């Protein structure tokens, strides 16, 4: 099978976001400071590893479909859907927010292109499904660091008359 221009462009769009997620995750890993530093530092390692592996999987899928992936830094910078990461040290709470935003932006783009990918190549769509599942799980786990517990519904006490 040879990828159409649309399929190639959609997979390229996912590729650059995964590469940028990897790079920004590494920057966050190096610049994070503050409370719960070690846990977040280690969690970022997991995200970075998966983003890197996912980008390689997309690029190799593109090659299998006779499409040419472009992971050059200038291409990634120009075409990513992820906002820039701030410079300098970043507090853990802000890092949690920043990484969650980037995970969500990556997933949003994958979901945006998914249906067109699925129409032409269900195999590539299956790969994207796995990415969505894992990245959404990371988003939930990372964002939980800054969340406050939801209030439980007030329990009404009822008296029983015997």
From TrEMBL:
<dbReference type="GO" id="GO:0016722">
    <property type="term" value="F:oxidoreductase activity, acting on metal ions"/>
</dbReference>
<dbReference type="InterPro" id="IPR002177">
    <property type="entry name" value="DPS_DNA-bd"/>
</dbReference>
<dbReference type="Pfam" id="PF00210">
    <property type="entry name" value="Ferritin"/>
</dbReference>
<dbReference type="InterPro" id="IPR012347">
    <property type="entry name" value="Ferritin-like"/>
</dbReference>
<dbReference type="GO" id="GO:0003677">
    <property type="term" value="F:DNA binding"/>
</dbReference>
<comment type="similarity">
    <text>Belongs to the Dps family.</text>
</comment>
<dbReference type="InterPro" id="IPR009078">
    <property type="entry name" value="Ferritin-like_SF"/>
</dbReference>
<keyword id="KW-0238">DNA-binding</keyword>
<feature type="domain" description="Ferritin/DPS">
    <location>
        <begin position="10"/>
        <end position="145"/>
    </location>
</feature>
<dbReference type="InterPro" id="IPR008331">
    <property type="entry name" value="Ferritin_DPS_dom"/>
</dbReference>
<protein>
    <submittedName>
        <fullName>DNA starvation/stationary phase protection protein</fullName>
    </submittedName>
</protein>
<dbReference type="InterPro" id="IPR023188">
    <property type="entry name" value="DPS_DNA-bd_CS"/>
</dbReference>
<dbReference type="GO" id="GO:0008199">
    <property type="term" value="F:ferric iron binding"/>
</dbReference>
């Amino acid at each position: 099978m040879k990828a159409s221009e649309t399929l190639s462009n959609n997979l390229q769009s996912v590729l650059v976001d995964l590469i940028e997620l990897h790079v920004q995750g590494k920057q966050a890993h190096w610049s994070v400071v503050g409370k719960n530093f070690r846990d977040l530092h280690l969690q970022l390692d997991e995200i970075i590893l998966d983003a890197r592996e996912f980008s390689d999987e997309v690029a190799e899928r593109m090659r299998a479909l006779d499409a040419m992936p472009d992971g050059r830094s200038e291409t990634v910078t120009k075409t990513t859907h992820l906002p820039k990461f701030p410079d300098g040290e970043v507090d853990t709470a802000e890092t949690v927010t920043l990484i969650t935003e980037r995970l969500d932006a990556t997933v949003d783009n994958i979901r945006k292109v998914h249906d067109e990918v699925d129409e032409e190549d269900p195999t590539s769509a299956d790969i994207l499904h796995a990415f969505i599942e894992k990245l959404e799980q990371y988003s939930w786990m990372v964002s939980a660091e800054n969340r406050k517990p939801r209030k439980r519904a007030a329990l009404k006490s009822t008296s029983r008359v015997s």
